[in-house]
Automatic annotation (TrEMBL):
SUPFAM superfamilies: Multidrug resistance efflux transporter EmrE (SSF103481). InterPro entries: EamA_dom (IPR000620), EmrE-like (IPR037185). Residues 18-160, 174-310 form the EamA domain. The chain crosses the membrane at residues 20-37, 43-66, 87-108, 114-133, 145-161, 173-192, 204-225, 241-260, 272-292, 298-318. Coiled coil: none annotated. It comes from Rhodospira trueperi. Keywords: Membrane, Transmembrane, Transmembrane helix. This is EamA domain-containing membrane protein RarD. One of its GO terms (cellular component) is membrane.
Length: 324
């Protein structure tokens, strides 16, 4: 949840102090989220939790959506779209909403089964998948340094996935489930980034439509697979309290991130939020009583170092491509 596209608002004067402060808020929130997910009451199944946190995201986002419609920046509703653009936007919205719905469920399930710390580090694989899509679909060649750093990232993730044994037979299936989260995010964000550039859609509108579609998709999945989780969740106020907390925190993180990258570059904001699994490590020990294994610490250091290297290499490559 730390990787986002920049909002489509007009350029504004940079306020680095404000941007850095907001990115630090994202760092803390991202570190808290796996712990919140694993602190929910016993018996609150991952699918039910994913459904209800998504419902609460819609509830939290709706007032912001309505307020924006009444303001000067109405985004998509300010001007009419051609029929072809409207169909494409609806298609992208449905597809990415379904992806985010699936990733929400995988996030809750992966954190629960793989553990808060291991899942948090696995989610840091986002740049790996993003680079893959860029190479395949955008034909963006990577420098030898970027390839070497990507290899380092893969080594760190493999080491973590095998539980520090290096044996392929030791790879946890739940670690692979956690890897599904950045995989789905990376595909969805490529599609959303195109729409942010082509249409006047605003961050609040992106967030609202995203969580609305995700909620509908998850509701249908729950009704098809296990309707009991919905009835059980509706009948427990403590279940709803934790779902509301997770949904509200998740929504705040999305909106704070968009505002952060309006004041500072995405690369700087990403570098600030990179060490968020360290926050998860501390909270997992203090709040959940989990122990942090040596291989998790080692993997985190390797992954974080690789990510910082990739951010720096990407900035240098962008400067070389920029016209003088």
């Amino acid at each position: 949840m730390s990787q986002r596209t920049a909002p489509p608002h007009p350029a504004r004067p940079h306020d680095p102090a404000r941007g850095v402060a907001l990115a630090m808020v994202c760092l803390v929130i991202l570190g808290m989220m796996p712990v919140i997910a694993n602190s929910r009451p016993d018996g609150f199944h991952a699918l039910g939790f994913a459904v209800f946190l998504s419902v609460w995201q819609v509830v939290v986002t709706l007032p912001l959506f309505v307020r924006e419609l009444r303001g000067p920046d109405r985004g998509l509703f300010a001007t009419g779209l051609e029929a072809r653009e409207r169909r494409r936007l609806i298609g992208v919205g449905l597809l990415t909403g379904a992806m985010f719905g699936a990733s929400t469920y995988l996030y809750v399930l992966g954190v629960e089964r793989a553990g808060a710390v291991s899942a948090a580090i696995a989610i840091q694989a986002y740049p790996l998948f993003a680079m893959l899509w860029e190479a395949l679909f955008l034909k963006r060649a990577k420098t030898p340094l970027e390839l070497a750093l990507t290899a380092g990232l893969m080594v760190g993730l493999y080491y973590l996935g095998t539980g520090g044994t290096w044996h392929i037979a030791g790879v946890s299936p739940w670690f692979l489930v956690a890897l599904g989260v950045p995989f789905l995010w990376s595909v969805a964000h490529v599609l959303i980034k195109e729409e942010l550039g082509r249409t006047p859609i605003t961050p609040v509108q992106v967030t609202f439509f995203r969580v609305m579609v995700s909620t509908v998709v998850l509701l249908f999945v729950a009704l098809a697979l296990d309707p009991g989780v919905l009835a059980e969740g509706l009948g427990r106020w403590d279940f709803q309290a934790w779902a509301l907390l997770m949904g509200a925190v998740y929504t705040v993180e999305l909106i704070v991130w968009f505002h952060a990258v309006r004041s500072i570059d995405v690369s700087l904001a990403s570098s600030i939020t990179t060490p968020w699994p360290a926050v998860t490590m501390v909270l997992a020990v203090v709040v959940l009583g989990e122990s942090v294994a040596v291989h998790e610490v080692v993997a985190f250091l390797v992954v974080a170092a690789s990510l910082y290297g990739l951010i720096g290499a990407g900035l240098r490559a962008a400067r070389r491509r920029a016209p003088c």
